[in-house]
Amino acid sequence: MAKKSKKQQPGGTPATVALTTAGVSFTVHAYDHDPAHPSYGEEAAEAMGVAPDRVFKTLVADVDGTLTVAVVPVAGSLDLKALATAVGGKRAAMADPTLAERTTGYVRGGISPLGQRKKLRTVLDASASDHDTICVSAGRRGLEVEVAPKDLADLTNAVLAPIARA
Description:
Blueprint: H1 14-22, E1 26-30, H2 40-48, E2 56-63, E3 66-73, E4 77-78, H3 80-86, E5 92-94, H4 97-104, E6 121-125, E7 134-140, E8 143-147, H5 149-156, E9 159-161, E10 164-165
Parallel strand pairs: 3-6, 6-9
Antiparallel strand pairs: 1-8, 2-3, 2-5, 4-10, 7-8
């Protein structure tokens, strides 16, 4: 029997399949993506009518040679030094976008912390715990999942740390 690739998963994206398989409660939010919008995350917040501090972007960084996922509010930016510290590293830099896409199986602007092709270590900004639910990419531009921060942290084995700058 042929093995199904993640792109062929029934019932949604690899991210929504991972949530469903885990039995986690979540809500899907779809919106029409505008390729001309300057910020994927801000576009998502505006389209869904959700405060930008509850919508988190997924960034891939290189910490001492190891790809690491950082999940931070779209209203802020990633503090690379804080990310390195959170995982016991010394130096962090943003990963090459092509490498990030190839490793996660998602396209830039649609990278989800869930259902990645290769599970990467993950750090979730501590501010996520200020909210009952947060929104993260569901694996493609124009699609978000709303999930409890604890569930997201549990499913991704994330470390919670203050890694965002306002």
